[in-house]
Amino acid sequence: MTPTSLTPHQLAEIGALLAEPARAAMLLVLVDGTARPAGELAQAAGVGAPTASAHLKRLLDGGLLTVHVQGRHRYYRLAGDEVADWLEALALPRRPAALPLPTGDLALRRARTCYRHLAGQLGVALCAGLLERGHLTTASDGLALNRAGAEALVHAGLDADAAARLPSLRGRSCLDWTERRLHVGGPLGVALTGAMLDAGWLRPAARGRALLPSAEGLRRLAALGVRLPDPAG
Questions:
Q1: Which end of the chain is more exposed for a tag (fewer CB within 10 A), N or C?
Q2: In which residue ranges of the chain is CATH 1.10.10.10 found?
Q3: How far is CA 209 from CA 125, 157, 206, in A?
Q4: How many CA atoms lie within 13 A of 195 on its CB side?
């Protein structure tokens, strides 16, 4: 189900699901791509177990969550990266990119995960750099990394086997909620971010969704035409 395929009734249903603070809190906890048990989601939402169970059923019925059953345990996660994109655009606090963000949000704006793909200033810069060099191309079914782009990533230091898989994956253009520009989502974005994490170009922050680029990672990304704006700017 894509935004353009939604009927007015379906759109109203999704709006109703997001309008409840407890359900919104559960969804936002899962934006990092993790799967969590009902108890953790109840705690994040500040509700009891019976109330959490009712909310989770509504989110499952509404197609925003999926559940993985492992033995006697049930783990909930977002139904896909498309849902995470909607949450980034609709449910997270909106701030014009030109305005300064509170200190605690600067790392989140600089680089973060959005359902396992790279977002924020670095995600936007990566998308722009690959497009400008012709490594990333637009197609009818989304974004595609060509063979020259995969070779450039290997030359920059990514694992050759991981990079070789990237041209077979499709990406989506996601509008970044802080930068109001595009970053790469979908399977291509997830795999590309995973390869950069494995290479040590990025590492997760101790808490939250922020990703911290290493000095070596920034140097190698710069070789691909990817540059972060000056933090002081």
A1: C
A2: 3-86
A3: 18, 24, 9
A4: 21
Alpha-helical segments (H) within the chain: 8-19, 21-29, 38-45, 49-61, 81-90, 106-110, 120-132, 147-156, 160-165, 186-198, 215-222
pLDDT tens digit sequence for 152-165: 999 999 999 999 99
- Strand pairing partners for 185? 172
174: confidence class by pLDDT, cuts 50, 70, 90: confident
Other C-beta atoms lying within 10 Å of the C-beta of residue 211: 25
Nearest Cα to Cα of residue 142 among 156, 127, 160: 127
Q: What secondary structure letter does DSSP report for 171?
A: B
Residue 191: both structure tokens together: 């795999």
- Residues 99-108: contacts with CB under 8 Å, at least 24 apart: 101/178, 106/231, 107/205, 107/210, 107/212, 108/178, 108/208, 108/209, 108/210
User: What is the phi/psi pair of residue 76, to 5°?
Assistant: -105, 140
In words, the CATH class of domain 3-86 is mainly alpha
Whose structure tokens read 């791509």? 33
